[in-house]
């Protein structure tokens, strides 16, 4: 790749003011409504969001497969097309056929020959743990095996940026575990990784940073712990028989109160304040626990009512899409 000072892996990735709408019989669909994302080299970033949040559209623009209606994409200081042509980007998308009637090894070898600085073919095979598949014809592979081959193809170019759209969808539990082990190994080489997922656990476990998308916008961006803190949800649980829920819900710092048998569950906007109010008012409270919200809870709260993208009458940013 080029060594011009404004290009190269050190310059990172930037998506600025990106917008994309599609036409549909019901009217325009604003798939991406103005997002700004800057990614530092070496980061592993999860794009997390419900169906229709705009993750695939964002990834397609990052890869230069879709032209944005507005905004710019810069990958290591280059346009996506140039970055891909230079071998700096590897991608594994949800769709896309692999060339048929070659063996797995032949296909990986052929793909490696197209790039300036590839991994060794054996290294790519070992890294993606597909030694058992190398002699197979590509048209004889199961869905999950094809997905592993796609992964090997994405890696063999030895890209500085690896982009994956829902990479583990067709994989069983074991393949998924191996896939993430490989990802960690690849990330530890200083590579930048961007992956889209529906799986909260995957984003939480494998990404340095989670970009939560809903309805074509970024609703939260940061480490998983920070996202949970953004929601500010903490729960106090205490054994408190015959408690008056209305009075509990009215305590400062409490947003609502519920019971589970003899226990009360207080959802809190500020658990410290709530605890300070709870104890003098209810000295009989026992077994008190304070816990942070799970990522699942944060996700649901932040994307609430945004499960599907709106089709609306606002045509203001459709002009460029026509
Ligand atoms: N080519 C297209 N034509 C019309 N609408 C489209 C097109 N591509 C995407 N959309 C719509 O844009 C919205 C965002 O879709 P996108 O695929 O980016 O979301 P996503 O977050 O990747 O969802 P999923 O998790 O279901 O893949 C959806 O409402 C989708 O139906």
UniProtKB/TrEMBL annotation:
Pfam families: ABC_tran (PF00005). Signal peptide: none annotated. GO terms for molecular function: ATP binding. It is a peripheral membrane protein. SUPFAM superfamilies: P-loop containing nucleoside triphosphate hydrolases. The keyword Nucleotide-binding applies. Keywords: Antibiotic resistance, ATP-binding, Nucleotide-binding, Transport. It is found in: Cell membrane. It comes from the Bacteria. Residues 13-240 form the ABC transporter domain. The keyword Lipid metabolism does not apply. This is ABC transporter ATP-binding protein. It comes from Jatrophihabitans cynanchi. The lineage of its organism: Bacteria, Bacillati, Actinomycetota, Actinomycetes, Jatrophihabitantales.
């Amino acid at each position: 790749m080029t060594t011009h000072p404004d290009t190269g892996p050190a310059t990172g990735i930037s998506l600025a003011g990106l917008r994309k709408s599609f036409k549909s019989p019901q009217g325009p669909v604003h798939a991406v409504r103005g997002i700004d994302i800057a990614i530092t080299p070496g980061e592993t970033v999860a794009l997390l969001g419900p169906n229709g949040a705009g993750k695939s559209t964002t990834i397609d623009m990052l890869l230069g497969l879709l032209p944005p209606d507005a905004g710019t994409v810069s990958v290591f200081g280059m346009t996506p097309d140039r970055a891909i042509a230079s071998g700096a980007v590897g991608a594994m998308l949800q769709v896309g056929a692999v060339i048929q009637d070659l063996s797995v090894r032949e296909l990986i070898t052929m793909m490696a020959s197209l790039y300036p600085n590839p991994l060794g073919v054996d290294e790519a095979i070992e890294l993606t743990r597909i030694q058992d598949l190398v002699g197979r014809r590509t048209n004889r592979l199961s869905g999950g095996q094809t997905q592993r081959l796609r992964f090997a193809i994405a890696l063999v170019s030895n890209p500085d940026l690896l982009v994956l759209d829902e990479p583990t969808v067709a994989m069983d539990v074991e393949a998924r575990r191996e896939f993430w082990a490989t990802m960690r190994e690849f990330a530890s080489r200083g590579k930048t990784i961007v992956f889209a997922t529906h799986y909260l656990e995957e984003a939480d476990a494998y990404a340095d940073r989670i970009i939560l998308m809903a309805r074509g916008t970024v609703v939260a961006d940061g480490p998983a712990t920070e996202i949970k803190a953004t929601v500010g949800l903490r729960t106090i649980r205490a054994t408190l028989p015959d408690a008056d829920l209305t009075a509990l819900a009215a305590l400062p710092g409490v947003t609502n109160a519920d019971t589970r048998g003899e226990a009360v569950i207080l959802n809190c906007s500020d658990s410290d304040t709530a605890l300070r109010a709870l104890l003098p008012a209810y000295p009989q409270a026992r077994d008190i626990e304070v816990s942070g919200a799970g990522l699942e809870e944060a996700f649901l709260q932040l994307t609430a009512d945004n499960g599907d993208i709106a089709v609306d009458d606002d045509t203001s940013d459709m002009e460029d899409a026509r």
